[in-house]
Known about the structure:
Largest interface: A-B, 90 and 95 residues
Oligomer: heterodimer
Strand content of chain A: 15-25%
Radius of gyration of chain B: 42 Å
Helix content of chain A: 40-55%
Bound molecules: zinc ion
Low-confidence stretches of chain A: none
Largest sheet of chain B: 7 strands, mixed
Strand order of the largest sheet of chain B: 30-33-34-40-39-38-37
Strand order of the largest sheet of chain A: 1-4-5-9-8-7-6
Mean pLDDT of chain A: 90
Structural class of chain A: alpha+beta
Structural class of chain B: alpha+beta
Shape of chain A: elongated
Amino acid sequence: MLDEKIKSIHSEFKKEISGADNQKIIDEIRIKYLSRNGLVSVLFEELKSAPKEEKPLLGKRLNELRNSVTLMFEEAKEKVDASEKFSEHKIDLSLNGIARSIGSKHVLTQTLDEIKNIFKGMGFSVALGPELESDYYNFEALNFPHDHPARDMQDTYFINDNFLLRTHTTPVQVRIMEKQEPPVRAIMPGRVYRNEAVSARSYCMFHQVDGIYVDTNVNFAELKATLVSFAKQFYGSELKYRFRPSFFPFTEPSAEMDITCFLCHGSGCKICKGSGWLEILGCGMVDPNVFKSVNYDSEKYTGYAFGMGIERIGLLKYGIDDIRIYFENDLRFLKQF
Amino acid sequence: MKVSLNWLKKYVNLDGIPVSEIIHTLTMSGLEVEEVIDQNEIFKNFVVGFVKEKTKHTNADKLSVCKVSNGTDELQVICGAPNVDAGQKIVFAQIGAVVPNGNFKITKAKIRGTESFGMICSESELEISDNHDGIMVLPADVKEGTPISEALELNDVILEIAITPNRPDALSHFGVARDLSALFQRELKLPEINFEESSEPIEKFAAVEILDEVNCPRYSSKVVVNITVKESPAWLKKAVQKIGMRPINNIVDATNFVMFETGQPLHAFDLNMLNGNKIVVKSTKEESQFTTLDSKIRKLPLNTLLICDAEKPVAVAGVMGGENSEVTTETKNILIESAFFNPSSIRKTAKALGLSTDASYRFERTTNAGGTVYAAERAAQLIAELGGGKVAKGTLDVYPKIIEMPVVTLRFARVEKLLGYFIQPEKIKNIVTSLGFEITDENENEIVVKVPLFRPDVEREVDVIEEVARINGYDNIPTIASFSVPLGVKNDDSSFYDKVRDTAVGLGFFEMINNPLQNEKIAALTGSQIGVLNPQSLDMAFLRTSLIPGALMVASKNFNVGEKNLALFEIGNTFNKKSEGNLIKEFSDFTEDTKLLFLLSGKASLKEWYSDEKNISFYNLKGFINSFITNLALDNVLNDSYYHSEDRIFNLVFTKEHNGSVIGKGGRIKKEVLKQFDIQQEVFCFEFDMKVLEKLSTSKTKYIPLLKYPKMMRDFAFIFDDDVEYNDVASFIKKKGGSLLKSVRLFDLFESESLGSGKKSMAFELEYYDENRTLTDEEVEKDFTNLITLVSGEFKAKLRGN
Ligand SMILES: [Zn+2]
């Protein structure tokens, strides 16, 4: 009985293996004959119930069967492997590759990352703060008195008399200084809100990076040097720059930094409104009134602060002509960066 | 603010300084010149022409054919104005001229078959008045060929300067001239008051009383009698036009002129309309109504500062005069108001009325309390000259409490400490005095200065340092070659967010940034929404309570433009009231959370030559979330739970939990929700609380030594009833499989007729190993065989394969 089976399986296997010319058939044969529940294994199970006197011989035959089948299988498999290798010239190399999709960070995040890295390289920490902010942190502590026209500089979304959507990330300066004695050296990126009609040029929110450095010997010359270094790392080492006096309630003296327009290189164009200059940031020496609100001694400590918008940089750098496109999140836009 | 260069030159000699240098220097001193209007440029190619001959156009009744001389040539010009005539001197726009009104260029043209070489202009075409009744006829004595800029004195340069809120003094020609005088070290010459007063004292005509001294610290006035209200002379009309105002009459134009000259807003009352010939300054004690001179009825809130006569209000102080006391052509006698009001009072009133005027704009920025009398006298002089009246003797100047000039000590060493470079004390002294500051005391280390009241922004030493830095030029502040960085712990609060972004990007997701302001219905979908008081529109009136609705809006927009396959993520803040209906008084009354959202929709794989099309399913979402969690090394920290039951947003729900609290939740968005966003295809979302994720992820990853011994693999397949869940089987196998079994993986799952109805097959691969030794076949076989029996028994499952 078992003997017969051994013979028939052997011949059946020989027939099948001779026709095996690809990996798929090879795999099927392996499963059929050589797997855990394959035909060969089953015979070994049956051996257990064979008459005692026949067992040694049948066992030997079975082992021979297994060895022979395994050997033939390996030979056939090698042949198939080799032939497939040999037929490599049949692969159409011009077919599209099998792609793996990868996403991307929003262009504003990428810009912010670049700015962050430059300032981290210059020894700045990175701090965050809330967007729903109190009037105190957003205005009062930053030397914007109530009923002062300086408040008109930043159109504000109010939640009520005491709470608002922050109009700048500058309140985080106050929050850091409240918690920490000088030296303080940090940048504060984040989202800010302005109550302006939405148009191609303005949106109800944008992103800002503020910075501050307070210590015993910080001066305007160092502020200039730091920001010039930043601008050259970010915009290119060839740029020309200038600092103009300006006004921010939380700095005194205050300045705005312009760089040469990188579209017209200073000769004047539409982007720079003919001036040849592009304003890139506001800055100044921290106003003593801000130090007063965080209990720093303004005789002992001096500091500088600066702030810049992120969206504007992209408008200039990538030629984006409508600020709203940043926040529409059209996949066709997102995929470009 | 518009500033005329010719006007400035009356107060400071700018001879020999090119206009471009003036502009640059102003900008670099903080008075940023935003726009330059050069009339010489505008009126290039416009000359005085002489009409030698006029004949009718043969093909058009209303057109004339003129021979015009430009001084050198005679040109044929077609003109449509009825008042054109031979012998007139006219404004001739030659070929190449650009007509200001309409901004079109004159070219050679053929009109009804006749050639025309230029244009004869009207005043409105030149934009020098609204008059478009025919062409402008010039005096006969101007020579043909003279440039129009010269003939009409349109040779000014108008500068549009952006004045920052700290510089109310620069909202006047005096102020700008003062800066120029300091910047170029040229003398400032302000006009001297010089007029004849009548013998009748002002007290005979009027009286002034201040009842609210807090909001009106000073009220000065002059009276001019027997004036004639009429059109202003050409020079005055031109002057007010240059700075963007419309000429009205000699009185109004004169007060405006003085306001733009000195920065002091003035108001002229018709004295005969003032009951009791009296001015009373007081605040309203109740809400009331008042008609301003623009004929609008205004609602006045409580505590509005008013100018009244003996009986009634006649002006909203500092904002706008009343119709009832306005100067008209009938006016004979006027009272000129030149006051100093409390800036915040004027600002409140202007805001309440929604009315910003040139006057209120200056008052709310603080005007010069020391300059009221000068301005009143200056206006009186001008009005008397223009209107032929007589100035009453003396000034009514009610000034109950003299405002002292701030006294500030400036230490030279402090200048150097703050700016980082040394400026010679002589230079510092020169700068402050040229700005009108008075040095009252000095020694080798410091000076003491008295700050004039027209500079309300200067109160402290640091403010004076800014003035010094500004006038000396920021360009002169050096940059340093290196700086020291304080050591100490450097934190990056955003580093975890960066890591999360990198992981999401690696998983194929695109980052979006959404507007957190949305409409109430959308915001209310996912939480307890907080509104803004003053939204731009109802669609942007509430803060998002979750990132899901914003993401669904984005998905909808993308589907509409044909982008049907989306893998998006966002990190952003959400805002929720702690309890419904409560007011926000403290930070503790609301939560601001940072959330992370994933959105998936469309195809998981596209039909390609190597793959079949597959829709994104719940399992794609789950797989991505688990890969994400594994990348953050949180796979052993978080537990999953699932339920089919619906909630507000999802109907297949999947959560990530830590110690029993949900830190992330997602699933398939319900159809009813999708409908609100006009979405037809399935969408899957998952939202995490970033703060909690960040906290959990700070636990350090531990290194596990690599396995030195071989693994042994076994596999089996069972037929189960189809209500048996994978996770129950896998957990059972893990639990009962023995200590050598290290992992279980489902590698096949199917239902088919051959299995019988209500049955399914699950095939598992099992991994056995020991960290310390090589396993033997026998011991693995023993555990494996035992496990087969246990699984069959527990789940009434049948082993497949025989
Ligand atoms: Zn440019």
